[in-house]
């Protein structure tokens, strides 16, 4: 978990500033979310994706 948090910490953050980190984990979602170009309406996830980091290269360790 510490390595995941490290990825999200921007280098320009001041010492006293608090970060908001949201990790969304779901089963079998794939690219069926609006921020990945799907036609499914997910306005809140799209807003979070627009203002944050979206991973586009994902792997699954189990079939």
In a few lines, what is going on in this structure?
Helix content is 24%, strand content 0%.
What are the main properties of this structure?
63 residues; mainly alpha; 2 helices; disordered N terminus
Walk me through the structure:
The protein is an all-alpha fold. It has a domain at 27-55. 24% of the residues lie in helices and 0% in strands. It is built from two helices and no strands. It is extended and about 40 Å long. Residues 1-6 have low confidence and may be disordered.
Task: Give the arrangement of secondary structure elements.
Blueprint: H1 2-8, H2 43-50
Helix-strand pattern: HH
> Which sheet architecture does the biggest sheet show?
none
Mean pLDDT value:
75
* Strand runs, count: 0
Low-confidence sequence ranges:
1-6
Query: What's the gyration radius in Å?
Result: 14 Å
* Amino-to-carboxy terminus distance: 23 Å
User: Which shape, going by the Cα principal axes?
Assistant: extended
Q: Helix count, per DSSP?
A: 2
Q: Determine the fraction of residues in helical runs and give it as a percent range.
A: 10-25%
How much of the sequence lies in strands comes to: under 5%
């Amino acid at each position: 978990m510490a390595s995941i948090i490290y990825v999200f910490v921007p280098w320009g953050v001041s010492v006293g500033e608090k970060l908001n980190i949201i990790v969304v984990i779901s089963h079998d979602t794939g690219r069926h979310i609006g921020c990945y170009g799907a036609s499914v309406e997910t306005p809140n996830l799209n807003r979070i994706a627009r203002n944050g980091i979206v991973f586009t290269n994902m792997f699954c360790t189990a079939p």
